[in-house]
Amino acid sequence: MVTIAPPNSSRLYYSIPSTISAVGIEQVPELYFLDFITDNNDTITSITKANNGRALIVFFERYSMLVLALPQATDPGVFDQRIVEYVSNRRGAAGTHSATEVTLTSGRTISVAVDALGVWATDGISMIHEWSNDLDWDTHMSGVTMADIQLEDNPEMRRVEMLYTDGSGNRQAFHYFYGQCRRRVMYLQRRLQSYVGLVQVFPNLLQGHVLC
After folding, report:
1. Contact 171, 161 (CB under 8 A)
2. First to last CA, the chain
3. Whether 101 contacts 111, CB under 8 Å
4. 3-state SS, one letter per residue, for the chain
5. Distance, C-alpha 35 to centroid of its chain
6. What torsion do the CA atoms of 48, 99, 124, 102 make, to the nearest 10 degrees?
7. 8-42 pLDDT, tens digit each
8. pLDDT tens digits, one per residue of 116-175
9. Residue 161 phi, psi (nearest 5)
10. Number of Cβ within a 10 Å radius of residue 113
11. Cβ distance 210 to 175 under 8 Å?
12. Rg (Cα) of the chain, in Å, rounded?
């Protein structure tokens, strides 16, 4: 179990079974914790898993960190910053529900998050992909309370759904497709970019969230 201590904490609490066996599987000790001490006293906004459960990503508003281990009291050494490293020093998650875990059609798991710069995806280890470069992000997000944005995985539709309230108070949604469906969207984008007339008549076809 891993959780954030409200309200607005820079401390991550977790608990692990004291023994892994049929007898001890429910013997969970009191919560341990990791402190994320930063120059700006940033607080954790969200947490997700990635890389098939081998990566725990801790999001802040403007950066994100990978937790390399969850120490127990019986472990040698000390609790310090050697067990965490940056996933990105400029990409994070805007709010509590602004990050989600996604299982791709290959079985691989990644984390998708939204922050002030857009929607992005990572496995926490070796890749960061931008998912909203085809949008005029600043225009769409004008007047939006970023911390209230919600990301939800919809595996049946192979997409991540971004739900938000626009500057006029209307509920809106963007759909970001992944897997085979997302590849088809990207292929159509490349083809349409060579047909200026089609882009002018069907501008929405260049927004990867409206197809499939």
Report:
1. no
2. 36
3. yes
4. CEEECCCCCCEEEECCCCCCCCCCCCCCCCCEEEECCCCCCCCCCEEEEECCCCEEEEECCCCEEEECCCCCCCCCCCCCHHHEEEEECCCCCCCCCCEEEEECCCCCEEEEEEECCEEEEECCCCCEEECCCCCCHHHHCCCCCHHHCEEEEECCCCEEEEEEECCCCCEEEEEEECHHHHHHHHHHHHHHCCCHHHHHHCHHHHCCCCCC
5. 21
6. 80
7. 577 777 776 555 555 544 544 556 777 777 767 78
8. 999 999 988 878 889 988 889 999 999 999 999 999 999 988 889 999 999 999 999 998
9. -105, 125
10. 28
11. yes
12. 20
Q: Is the Cα torsion angle 103, 105, 106, 110 positive or negative in sign?
A: negative
Contacts of 114 (CB under 8 A, 6+ apart): 93, 94, 98, 99, 120, 146, 149, 151, 162
pLDDT tens digit string along 52-85? Answer: 878 889 999 999 988 877 766 555 555 555 567 8
pTM (2 decimals)?
A: 0.74
